[in-house]
Amino acid sequence: YHRLSIMSTRYSRGYSNNENKCLKKWNANGKMREKSLTMDTLNPQVKAVEYAVRGPIVTKAGDIERGLQQVTTTYLPIILTIHINTSCLYVQVVALCSFPELLDSSSFPEDAKQRARRILQGCGGQSLGSYSASQGVDCIRQDIAVYIEQRDKGVPADWDNIYLTTGASDGIVSILKMLVSGQGRSRSGVMIPIPQYPLYSAAISEMEAVQINYYLDEDNCWALDINELHRAYQAAKEHCHPRVICIINPGNPTGQVQSKKCIEEVLHFAYEENLFVMSDEVYQDNVYSPDCQFHSFKKVLYEMGPEYFNTVELASFHSTSKGYSGECGFRGGYMEVLNLDLEVKAQLVKLLSVRLCPPVSGQAAMDVIVNPPLPHEPSYLQFHKEKRAVLGALAEKAQMTEQILNTVPGIKCNPVQGAMYAFPRIFIPPRAVEEAMSLGISPDMMYCLRLLEETGICLVPGSGFGQREGTYHFRMTILPTTEKLKVLLEKLRDFHIKFLKEYASLEEPKR
């Protein structure tokens, strides 16, 4: 979904409405047969699921885009499809694994061939098309363990604690399934940051767990406040059983990078309250601020001593979809799970076996991320040159986004310390708020719809991620090229000023 479209608003499209089809049809015996699955019989937990990053704004953007493709070239849009790809090494290795005959080709570097041969030897029948073990291909899990040890400066990693997943999302949902139980006041509560990535609220809703919101401190660059954790925990104990705390670091949608001290406080809190810790670290390579550094929850836990490291249950997640690679479609990822009860661990393997195995092509792509070329290998210079270029450009665009947005009256943007997004706060005049309420939509949803219709810029409203009552935000990606991102920000600035003038009031924009 990392896509941003700048489009002409002049478009035409014919719509065919199939949504009001009759729910009853005649069967062969001349009797009315009703649909067995209707909105009345649909699982109510499915109805409750919301996923803003693929929600109505993005759906409408797709409708506009398809409509524009049907009109004359005079009004065709400029489409910016964003796909960060550091190097063709990922594609080379997956291609070699998919079509082993290419191993004899001189068009591929030897280090790509060596990786492909090793992965194929670990696959059943030496084929990428075979099922792997439910936990993933053994040699890839071993490579991940080596990567984690190197990343964490020697903290031991056991490959038996590594599970390959269909992207990080698959692992997150699997762990939540293990944790949710009970009824009424004993129902499992899941602490999640607000703003949050909508995967968490959607999964919690689908499982009928209890969502426990803890608010990040916007005035302190979206830092995690330990006092807020205690407040949320104590309030939740009145109506559920808090069992797990989720952290996204670096943050999505907020782009903050949590300090080591903050992580220590979270882990101590989890230790004291007997909480399972889920650490979403898919943006661990995306740190831009020179004052910030990524600290894995595992490494910090280890440095807190054996009393913590050998007891706190921790699941951490990584993915091929983010970082500097952006290989989203491969659906590759892994989780490392520490300190599980042995019987529970067997149950986790059983649960994962139900989906047989994650995509083996995604596992192969994950292996390249954790096993990049070494200095003596032929792909080394190109790979690391492109990696530095991607991360350097993102750092430049993160700074530019913050600077430009903060020049706009009524917009305040915290520093984008990491990840790939900005989550600025926007002032929406009271008259616009009233109009949105009369339409039955949130004010930031109306704002983003207007923005899409008038400029073709597709942003996701902050209400889809959660925000403090009375505040409004949007999430935007920093993935377009520097030149195109600058154009986008200028169009956004002009729209916002026009929007404020349209709904002008005596109240000054909040900064």
UniProtKB/TrEMBL annotation:
<dbReference type="InterPro" id="IPR004839">
    <property type="entry name" value="Aminotransferase_I/II_large"/>
</dbReference>
<keyword id="KW-0663">Pyridoxal phosphate</keyword>
<dbReference type="GO" id="GO:0004021">
    <property type="term" value="F:L-alanine:2-oxoglutarate aminotransferase activity"/>
</dbReference>
<keyword id="KW-0808">Transferase</keyword>
<dbReference type="GO" id="GO:0042853">
    <property type="term" value="P:L-alanine catabolic process"/>
</dbReference>
<comment type="subunit">
    <text>Homodimer.</text>
</comment>
<dbReference type="InterPro" id="IPR015424">
    <property type="entry name" value="PyrdxlP-dep_Trfase"/>
</dbReference>
<dbReference type="GO" id="GO:0030170">
    <property type="term" value="F:pyridoxal phosphate binding"/>
</dbReference>
<dbReference type="InterPro" id="IPR015421">
    <property type="entry name" value="PyrdxlP-dep_Trfase_major"/>
</dbReference>
<feature type="domain" description="Aminotransferase class I/classII large">
    <location>
        <begin position="108"/>
        <end position="492"/>
    </location>
</feature>
<comment type="similarity">
    <text>Belongs to the class-I pyridoxal-phosphate-dependent aminotransferase family. Alanine aminotransferase subfamily.</text>
</comment>
<dbReference type="InterPro" id="IPR015422">
    <property type="entry name" value="PyrdxlP-dep_Trfase_small"/>
</dbReference>
<dbReference type="Pfam" id="PF00155">
    <property type="entry name" value="Aminotran_1_2"/>
</dbReference>
<comment type="pathway">
    <text>Amino-acid degradation; L-alanine degradation via transaminase pathway; pyruvate from L-alanine: step 1/1.</text>
</comment>
<keyword id="KW-0032">Aminotransferase</keyword>
<protein>
    <recommendedName>
        <fullName>alanine transaminase</fullName>
        <ecNumber>2.6.1.2</ecNumber>
    </recommendedName>
</protein>
<dbReference type="InterPro" id="IPR045088">
    <property type="entry name" value="ALAT1/2-like"/>
</dbReference>
